[in-house]
Amino acid sequence: MMVLTLLPYPLRHFSTESLFCDCQLEWLLLWARANGVRLGNDTLCVHPTHLHGLEVHNLRETQLRCDEPLELPLFQLIPSQRQVVFRGDRLPLQCTVSYLDPSVTLLWHHNGHVVHS
Length: 117
Description:
Blueprint: E1 11-12, H1 26-34, E2 38-39, E3 75-78, E4 94-97, E5 108-110, E6 113-115
Parallel strand pairs: 1-2
Antiparallel strand pairs: 3-4, 5-6
């Protein structure tokens, strides 16, 4: 087991692209309040979806729950393996994404050109 010791400083930043705000993060809120530490405004929840974009320092302990289904970001491409396709055959492609940041753009390319339909 690894023990993390955080010394109190006035401002802490925990900016990440995958911050899970669940019951495992409750200790951070309690520690920050007990030590007079302010969490930076850039410390935002990414998961679960209903807390996405919220600043951690504004959360209440009751919002940090672990009794809901685990919500992991998912990116799935079907088929997931290389395929052999002969001229005239069809190969349906399916892309499923459970969460995309608004800055992300997905494009399909074929032979160096963007596929529009």
